Amino acid sequence: MTSSSPSAVSEDSTSLGLATWSNEFSLNWNHDAPQGVDVSLFRPSIPPVVSQLLSGFDPINSSFTLPELAMLPVDVVLAVSDSTFQEIPIVQDEDNDPEGVRLLLCPTPALDKNAKSNTLPFVLHCYSQWALARVFEPLKLVYTMRDQVITHFSSETTRNRTILIANVMDTFAKKLAIDDSRKTILNRLVLDVQQSGAYFTATPPSSVPNWDRQNAMHTLDSMLETFSLQIATQSISACIQSLDYAAPVFRRACSEPPEQPVNLANILLQSNLNLRNFAIFDIIQSITTGRPTYIRYEVPFSLELCERIYQVQDSIGLRWLHGFPDQFILLFAWIISLCEVPRAGNNAELVTWIETNLPHIKIAVDDSGDPVLRIGRMVVQECWRFAVLVFLYMVLGQAHAHDPRVIRALKGFMRLVRGVKPGRNPDAYLFTPMSVAGVAATEAQDQDTLRQRILGVRECADPGTVGNDVVLELEDIWARARDEGRPAVWSDLRIACFRVTGR
Questions:
Q1: Could you name the domain of life of the organism this protein comes from (predicted)?
Q2: How many CA atoms lie within 13 A of 267 on its CB side?
Q3: Number of other residues whose CB lies within 10 A of the CB of residue 125
Q4: Would you say 459 and 178 are in contact if contact means Cβ atoms under 8 Å apart?
Q5: How many whole angstroms separate alpha carbon 495 and alpha carbon 490?
Q6: Do residues 41 and 264 make contact, with C-beta atoms less than 8 angstroms apart?
Q7: What is the DSSP letter of 107?
Q8: DSSP label at residue 392
Q9: Which residues 6+ apart lie within 8 Å of 405 measured at CB?
């Protein structure tokens, strides 16, 4: 196993972009898995997209200026103030906030959001609204988000950018979509961070490795914050393009030498949010598009390691952000790595070992909070368990959609989906596992259910969004399999992704 020794940074830091401490570990996992299996994930890295080199570029102290800032819409808040904000309570509708997230994150903003003294409260309010609309368990995020926003707001180089992000969040939270004005703002923000990433990548690494990793994490922080807006409002193609830029920055932020794979378990068990977030995005984009991962990973796997990840879910896990259990992310990556082991797919003992031990992987659901939301969250995570089975059989086992094991796994998935009423919770967090399980859907009834549930999520209904592209990909798979008189196979997903996104 490749070991890593990332540098430690003081835990007093409130900037997520500079938090790099991690836990190094070594587990004898081979005693649990079938013998003779190499578990290093070696996927081709996609080269960085680099424009011209900016000599003397300092990624910590430099900032790109958004073009034509003066031409922004008049309803965009740009007022800033160094003064302490005031609490000015007004009546709020709490119907969409049964767990009280808004009150924990911020005081209620004054009615005049353009007043300088109210800018920070307005920004915090926008972030809280965004968390309610997009975060799987917002209660887990509230204090971390507050600290990050205040840190970014206190910096001259990031304040205006934070305000612009808040404006996009505010519109999305109200409409679950953004208008043309906010699309323009977001496009400028995306271009800004892509240029930052390209220039950082083109800059030779610092002679001090710890300093270079801190610079990389600072750059990655801005890139992933903007990426979270893209996932909700832009196409798969646009999101992939941003990952093109972010991947080499992430790699510079890792402690392993460039010629070595990145230890995925070390990433999932360390405290840096951005490193964990990118690795999860990387694995998820691979399993939902059929594309390779951007980064070469070394993937240890055992039930003991899953238990260790489970035990730290409340402190460093990211299940609360996306609804993806970190243990399943590790298992997906392990299955991908096994596909590169000769004859692993023909190893019935290996497939049996995974399907037998999958039910023993524990997932966490917070006992606090709204009980109705808690049920939806449990359904989402259990749907991921069935999505793992579909992926296992169709990817490692190379089974087609008519294979009895695949049919059984899909049946369990659909039973859970139909067991809860359509609604934003849980459907806003179900369309990602639906994109995995949907490859195996052959019955018209199942296809209709998946189509309706995904398109029932407001942000998935608009063309040119990730969720809408997912439906187009599934429709392509189903139509080609039907027209060719055969069951779908996993390679159909990669073809569908290319036909829909051009990537």
A1: Eukaryota
A2: 32
A3: 23
A4: no
A5: 9
A6: yes
A7: P
A8: I
A9: 389, 393, 397, 399
119/173: higher pLDDT: 173
The tokens describing 218, both together, are: 């600072």
Measured in degrees and rounded to the nearest 5, phi and psi for residue 391 equal -65, -45
Q: Report the SS3 class of residue 40.
A: strand
CA separation for the pair 185, 350 (Å, rounded): 49
Spell out the residues 6+ positions from residue 180 whose beta carbon is closer than 8 angstroms to its own: none
pTM: 0.81
d(CA 245, CA 416): 37
Residue 41, token pair as written in the block: 């994930």
Number of C-beta neighbours around residue 126 at 10 A: 27
CA neighbor of 203 nearest in space, from 188, 218, 183: 218
* Whether 363 contacts 327, CB under 8 Å: yes
Number of H helices, E strands in the chain: 21, 3
Neighbours of 319 (CB within 10 A): 28
Q: 228-286, pLDDT tens digit by residue? A: 999 999 999 999 999 999 999 999 999 999 999 999 999 999 878 999 999 999 999 99
* Cα–Cα distance measured from residue 443 to residue 68, given in angstroms and rounded to the nearest whole number: 52
Beta bridge partners of 263: 298
Judge whether 229 and 177 are in contact, CB under 8 Å: no
> What letter does residue 139 receive in the DSSP assignment?
G
Distances in Å between the alpha carbon of 156 and those of 78, 82, 151, 153, 249? 13, 10, 10, 8, 23
At 91, the amino acid letter reads V
Strands 297-298 and 40-41: antiparallel
> Distances in Å between the alpha carbon of 445 and those of 51, 294, 449?
48, 36, 6
* Number of Cβ within a 10 Å radius of residue 494: 14
Residues 6 or more apart whose CB falls under 8 angstroms from that of 398 comprise 345, 489, 490
Distance CA 249, CA 311 (A): 29
Write out pLDDT tens, residues 165-200: 999 999 999 999 999 999 999 999 999 999 999 999
| Residue 468: strand, helix, or coil | helix
Q: Per the structure block, which two tokens stand in for 170?
A: 């505010």
CA–CA dist 97, 120 (Å, integer): 21
pLDDT at 140: 82
The reported pLDDT for the residue numbered 95 is 60
Residue with tokens 């180089």: 157
**How crowded is residue 36: how many other Cβ atoms within 10 Å of its Cβ?**
10
Helix (H, G, I), strand (E, B) or coil at 218: helix
**Letter for the amino acid at 61?**
N
Task: Give backbone dihedrals phi and psi of 19, rounded to 5 degrees, phi first.
Answer: -90, 110
Sheet containing 262-263: order of strands: 40-41, 297-298, 262-263
Which residues are 40's β-sheet partners? Answer: 298
Give the number of other CB atoms < 10 A from CB of residue 476. Answer: 18
DSSP letter (8 states) at residue 346:
G
